[in-house]
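A sample copied in:

***
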Amino acid sequence: MTVSEKTCQKLLEQLKQTEHMLQNSYMEYDNNKTQEFSTENLYTKKLSLGINLDNKK
């Protein structure tokens, strides 16, 4: 089976984007882990900042 160079370039680009997304997710996870929010604390922050945390992506 042969794969065109164009296909390889597309796959490489997708891999780079995926790697970037994973790095961002990990950094977010790491930040959240160190802050140790309780549910009550998050609810209070949600009310005081007027932020809809349910829709956070």
Observations:
- The chain has a mean pLDDT of 72.
- The chain has two helices and no strands.
